Amino acid sequence: MKNALITGITGQDGAYLADFLLGKGYKVFGGYRRLSTPNFWRLYHLGIHDKVKLLPLDVLDSHSISEALVASAPNEVYHLAAQSFVGASFVQPLYTSDVTGFGSVRLLDEILKFDKKIKIYQASSSEMFGEDNSPTKNETSPFNPVSPYAVAKLYSYWMVRAYRKGYGMHATNGILFNHESPLRGLEFVTRKISNEVAKISLGLSKSLKLGNLDAKRDWGYAPEFVEGMWKMLQQKNPDDYVLATNETHTVREFVNEACKIAGISSKSIQTSKQNLRPIDVQYLRGDYKKAKRKLGWSPKTKFKKLVKIMVDEDISRWERWIKREYFPWDAATFGHDSIGMKKTKKL
Ligand code: NAP
Ligand code: F7E
Fold it and tell me: Which of 7, 13, 156 to mutate to test the pocket of ligand 1 (most atoms within 8 A of CB)?
């Protein structure tokens, strides 16, 4: 039996990857950072909270990383922990550099000291390509990062390559384009749309305020992308791979499709300057030919199906909430502006 350690197991990809690896017979250890209120809803949602071994691991704290390595003795480490929200990286550039940039090096260095044969996956990002006019991006496309998040990710990307070449470590960069799901955090645009459109369709909200509706993204389905991460670490040699769908759509198209599915008018969607970034990557579309050729990986879920999965699930959750059902879910505690919430008595 193989042991896997996932940093950032409480996030979207961490939860899906844990589920996938359990299905493959792995013993799964998950690093989480201590919060005043634990954030295990995704693990509960997938029914795997009691199947994984949770270990305190904050990438700002090398000691916690080395403790987690000793406790898990991993064959494979999937490094997913990050301050992953591009918008927040403009407000917290130093914190983002520390967590998303230096955090990876703390991990690489502890692994080098502990056992350099451990295979490592680094969650690199299409955001690193930034502003560039080429129609699609692959593993050889130039990087031109424009956000503090992207710069921090690019630093980690190069450090992974430096440890690979310098110390012969099996360290791989997965350069993943946007991937979404009903487990996506509420601040990201797809889930913000699916959640709010679901509420509007049920009379729980009146409007949705967004930012740049013209931005284009290559959106895939997260459970398929975590399988690609695993495939990368099953290769004899470490390398870098793009995972994407090779399609691109505007935020506006996502909104229109979501409204169509929910049966509401897209007129209730507004824009607000508050949701604009100082600079935004306008266009992203990935070329996953290398992953297809070498890993046998291809995306199955395309744009319209993805939007439907997300909107249907958020409608179903809010319907259960109206019936006063209790279940693990983020949105119920996120905002307090819904009609339903106002009805709740103050404590
Ligand atoms: P996510 O849902 O935001 O999850 C991020 C995880 O990192 C959470 O478990 C979070 O813990 C954890 N974390 C944050 N700060 C930490 C710290 N100081 N120490 C330890 N853990 C910390 O992100 P995701 O969508 O699953 O993405 C996974 C990784 O892939 C991230 O590195 C992201 O940047 C990268 N990526 C994502 C995409 C995408 O489209 N999803 C594309 C390319 C790359 P809490 O639960 O405590 O916040
Ligand atoms: O924005 C625009 C926004 O925050 C997508 C992360 O997983 O993927 C993600 O980063 C687009 C941008 O994702 C709103 O300006 C419009 O153009 O969902 P997002 P992202 O920035 O692409 C990459 C690959 C990662 O690596 C990251 O970790 O949508 N947009 N209006 C909006 N975005 C948000 N969040 N909120 C809005 O109201």
Answer: 13
